[in-house]
Amino acid sequence: MNAPLPSDPLDAHIARRAADRPPAVEVLSAEKIFANGTRALAPIDLTIAEGEFLTLIGPSGCGKSTLLKLIANLIQPSDGRILWWRGDSGQVGQDGRGLAFVFQEPTLMPWARVDTNVRLPLDLADVPRGKADPRVSDAIARVGLSAFARHYPRQLSGGMKMRVSIARALATDPNLLLMDEPFGALDEFTRNKLDDDLIKLWWERKLTTVFVTHSIYEAVFLSTRIVVLAANPGRIFRTMTIDEPQPRGQDFRDSARFAAYCRELSTWLAEASLPSASGATP
Amino acid sequence: MKPLLQSETFVRIAAPLAVGVVLLAVWEIGCRLGSIPVYLFPKPSDIFASLIKNGPSLLRALLITLRITLQAFAAAVVLGTLIAFMFVQSRAIEVSLFPYAVLLQVTPIVAIAPLIIILVKNTQLSLTVCATLVALFPIISNTTLGLRSVDPGLASYFRMNRASRLKTLVRLRIPGALPYFFGGLRISSGLALIGAVVAEFVAGTGGRSSGLAYEILDAGFQLDIPRMFAALFLITVTGVLLFGAMVGLSKLALSNWHESELGAEA
């Protein structure tokens, strides 16, 4: 049962991809110490290949959101560097290397209709309406909300609002999609539905995605690779590669392999949360 | 079709109207039964008769007061909004100037009106200045609060997209501040009217450019109590209409998205 669990981060499949093309993201000994002295992240090394779906998971306080924000260039590392396509992360968006971030909350403008909300990043980038509008309707269609383009956010359910938020991210045609527990506030049924759609979107576009979640099932279902973090200070505990046929669907969720992955990951998470796991790395 | 009594709109109009009719009836009957003389406390019918009789002069006075009120209200909205924009530009500006805005608010207008009336030659203008001072504060404080109350998630989204200060202001801060701004408008419109009337009282201007306050003063001197009440009635009606206009404006602007205007069905 435990046999099909490749835990080597340099899985052959990933290695082949990484050799062909420059990695999408390289985290080079990046460390984060907050102003109050809290060491959120010990120096971390992580390479994310183009087209990977990488999930960060770990006990609370393990710095998974901090790591995501470092990758997004939302905060600066105290030491070390983050590279995007071998370039400086400060130069994103200047050569067609776009990045989109999806928050835990939909963060929509309540006064604006769905299409205006989705167009926001394009408006902020001064994309002319004629060019922006087809991209907006395409993004809305991708998340299945074409019938709701002229609705206001308050008229939508929580899951639909999250779809709008994802459409807004897709409208910029990003190369790198970063998601911080995007479905954490949704019920399990809605979450599974959105996971199904997300994996389809990812597969269609081969969009490099970094995903933060608390859910073991979600992590196993979506990821090509899972990075388990431990806390005090935040560091990489172990990585798990999920080499399963794509695009995945309900049959994968129902499979014995899925259950095995989940069991293994759950054990790792328990280990990562143990006090003995803390401080193992200075 | 729903029965009339269950229709919300009908109840909302009819209920207060019924209360008003009952109150007026009690007032009328009470005055008649107690044979209270008109110069002490006039009956509603006396007031109505006076309203008809003194219609032209009262209407002229109303227009003058209304003009001062609207001028002051407009000035307060423009000035207050500008000041609020200035305040949110930096904490330093707000911290250094906000106490003076409060100072302006707590100083009784009757106390400074004489000074303003002496300093400003033009009577109309001096009255407008007084009323503006009264109406200004709610606009400043509400708009400042609104411009500051930005959804933190949206704010970081704008920052992440490297939105300029101007774009953040136009696309995020201003729409987000609208509900607060309209709240300020409701308070301020009533205060502009009160300010105008109080300033007129203090100025006590005679001659042609005299508003409703002058009508009340003049009627008081002549013991024409029904005319006094008639003028008061017009002030009240004006205030209610102004408030209603602001409510309507706010509904028009916010009905699509803001909780305060969504109504019972949402």
Q: Care to describe what's here?
A:
The complex is a heterodimer of chains A (282) and B (266). The longest helix of chain A has 18 residues, at 188-205. Chain A has two domains: 1-98 and 174-282, 3-Layer(aba) Sandwich (Rossmann fold); 105-173, no CATH class. With 282 residues, chain A is of the alpha/beta class. Chain A starts with 11 loop residues before the first helix and ends in a 9-residue tail after the last helix. Chain A is 37% helix and 21% strand. Chain A contains nine helices and ten strands. With 266 residues, chain B is mainly alpha-helical. Chain B has a single domain, classed as MetI-like (MetI-like fold, Orthogonal Bundle), CATH 1.10.3720.10. Chain B has helices spanning 8-33, 44-53, 55-89, 91-106, 109-119, 123-148, 152-160, 165-203, 212-221, 225-254. In chain B, helix 5 crosses helix 8. The mean pLDDT of chain B is 85. The interface between A and B is medium-sized, with 18 and 21 residues. Chain A: This is ABC transporter ATP-binding protein.
Give the tags.
heterodimer; A: 282 residues; alpha/beta; Rossmann fold; 2 domains; six-stranded mixed β-sheet; four-stranded antiparallel β-sheet; 37% helix; disordered N terminus; B: 266 residues; mainly alpha; MetI-like fold; 10 helices; 80% helix; 0% strand; flat
